[in-house]
Amino acid sequence: MVELLRRPQGAWGKTHDIPPESAGWKYVGFELWQLKAGQRAAQKCGGREVILVLVEGKARIAGAGQDFGEMGARMSVFERLPPAAVYLPPGSDWQAEATTDCVLAVCSAPATGGHEAAVIGPAGISMVERGKGANTRHIHNIAMEDRDVADHLLVTEVFTPDGNWSSYPPHRHDEDDFPRITYLEETYYHRINPPQGFGFQRVFTEDGAFDESMAVRDGDVVLVPRGHHPFGVAYGYESYYLNVMAGPLRKWRFHNHPDHDWIYQRDNG
Prior knowledge:
- By secondary structure, the chain is mainly β.
- The chain has one domain: Jelly Rolls.
- 4% of the residues lie in helices and 49% in strands.
- It has helices spanning 20-23, 261-268, and strands at 5-6, 13-18, 29-35, 40-44, 48-56, 59-63, 66-71, 84-88, 93-98, 102-110, 118-121, 127-130, 137-143, 154-160, 165-166, 171-172, 174-177, 181-183, 185-193, 199-204, 211-216, 221-224, 231-233, 238-246, 255-256.
- The protein has a seven-stranded antiparallel sheet, with no helix packed on it. It has a six-stranded antiparallel sheet with strand order 2-3-10-5-8-11.
- Strand 20 (199-204) and strand 21 form a beta hairpin.
- The longest helix has 8 residues, at 261-268.
- The N and C termini lie far apart (39 Å).
């Protein structure tokens, strides 16, 4: 079984490197670069499309023959400002030079080149509130299907207030049967404020054959290859996570767990 919980590897440089083969799946790739001011990172996209998300800090970004200049506004992700983000098509490359200490997420998936390189954030991204009560959370839809900015990638940020739940009620998107449900692999890059806090994520199937619960710390990544995947953060700590999803179809169609769907029906009925 693939290890679902990935701890950061070091404090600086490429602290997460999760190509599809290391996750045991076909689509989603995720990397995280933590750069000191003046440090650089660069890569070729190959046959994959890439969305760069400046999680924190500022950097000069270039790619696909374009210079996007210095990007980034929020120095802490918990400022909740919309993130700077850039889309790059397969066959291109990218370079980043940190102008402050920064955190850069590299989200990737196989693609056919249906979109051109473009800045996709912060313009066009606004915060949306979802849920009720202790299920309230706040969303930045960076590249969900309502924005035609990618071939296969779906990328979003979620802020969960202290003591609250998100990705809840438990839901899954692990079958390729559109429009009933879509197959989407998914990663969660977690941050906790203050950073000594923790949350819990459970990944499980309805038949009970697969059931794993993880204590999540600041900087961890959780892989969701299948099943339901709710998350809760401890009281006194707020949570942020960056979701990356991809599959054969760029549509997000999910099923709530039948035992817990009554919560969704009550809150949305």
